[in-house]
Amino acid sequence: MNTAILCGLIILVVLVVLLVAGVPIAAAIAVSSICAILPIMPLDIAVLTGAQRIFSGISVFNLLAIPFFILAGNIMNKGGIAARLINLAKLITGRIPGALAHTNVLANMLFGAISGSGTAAASAMGSIIGPIEKDEGYDPNFSAAANIATAPTGLLIPPSNVMITFSLVSGGTSVAALFMAGYIPGILWGLACMVVIYILAKKNGYRSTAAYEFKAGVKVVIQAIPCLLLIVIVIGGIIGGAFTATEGSVVAVVYSLILSLFFYKSIKPKDLPQIFIDSAEMTGIIIFLIGASGIMSWVMAFTNIPEAVSAGLLSISDNKFVILFMVNVILLVVGTFMDMTPACLIFTPIFLPVCSALGMDTIHFGIMMIFNLCIGTITPPVGTTLFVGVKVGGVTIESVFKQLLVYFAAIFIVLMLITYVAPLSLWLPSLMGYT
What we know:
Elements: H1 3-20, H2 25-37, H3 43-58, H4 65-77, H5 81-93, H6 99-115, H7 118-135, H8 140-150, H9 153-156, H10 161-169, H11 175-204, H12 214-240, H13 245-263, H14 272-303, H15 305-316, H16 320-337, H17 340-357, H18 362-376, H19 384-393, H20 397-420, H21 423-431
Helix pairs in contact: 1-2, 2-14, 3-14, 4-13, 4-14, 5-6, 5-12, 6-7, 6-8, 6-11, 7-8, 7-19, 8-19, 8-20, 10-17, 11-18, 11-20, 11-21, 12-13, 14-17, 15-17, 16-17, 16-18, 17-18, 18-20
């Protein structure tokens, strides 16, 4: 049997067995990778090289951005930002059919972009807007579905930790370029869901009766401006060259601390130790995943697994559209049972060479992959955002999943557009001179 095929099968089988057995993902990745290299390398050398790969995989300056963005997100999550963004979104949506659900979408896009977490967005927005929608006669399943379907938009709209991870594993793709490339796909995701909401809300007669007076509207805008300035300062500074993505993450922490401690006064100094602990725990999980994936990347490169996969796909068809569709289907399936970060770390080295051989830009591929994996966060059995949205919405997965199907159809259409219409991902980066 071909060495690449044998090693690839060993990785797949051992990884699945370990995950089913409940072994942590990072450990499963490391063990399956070491097992795969054993047919061609002694155990002691494989283990020693694996340890070196873990160290070299995390000894990357750009990775410092991840813990700081996580910390900034946690500070903003607990800093009273959600209510102010919801008020701004309500002001924008007005009295259109399903106005509160549209408010949820816009608030998810804004809050997700600030916090960098779809799960945090689903939790914060669902718990605040859900009861208001219920009071106005909205079906709880309708409300929960709208919240769940749009929570991942903040993972595409920067800053986004998974984009930083992709930058690393893809060989140093510009983080700023990826940040710029995520805006249009993220906004299109939200708009597609808003079309669905409008149709369903009009059919069910959901119409908001509340309206802001001019003075109240001005007050809402003024209160929301400091929150929105975080995006302007951090992303604007990175794109403008004032600082790197890593330095921008530190700016985000400092700004969010000042905003929450002194401006809104929604966080007290005694709350900070727990915020730091939570951020450190999440950082440790992600960094260990990245380090373990370094072993897998080395094994794949050493055994030529990406080349074997590429040859296999190209043997099925040489049509670019067919191959990209197959890659999308595989990633959609993978996303249903694997979290975004490990999926990105594992499958980027496999599919990037295939798509590059078809003339696909690395930035374009990155956005396509991240978009795919975002969908996985709202699908069972491992959809963390789905579970959080169901919990805060007070509904069951069975009942809300029926409502989600129409959103999945709309999101899939956007995915196909992102896949086959490259300018949707590359226009903004090219406008800023990144491509």
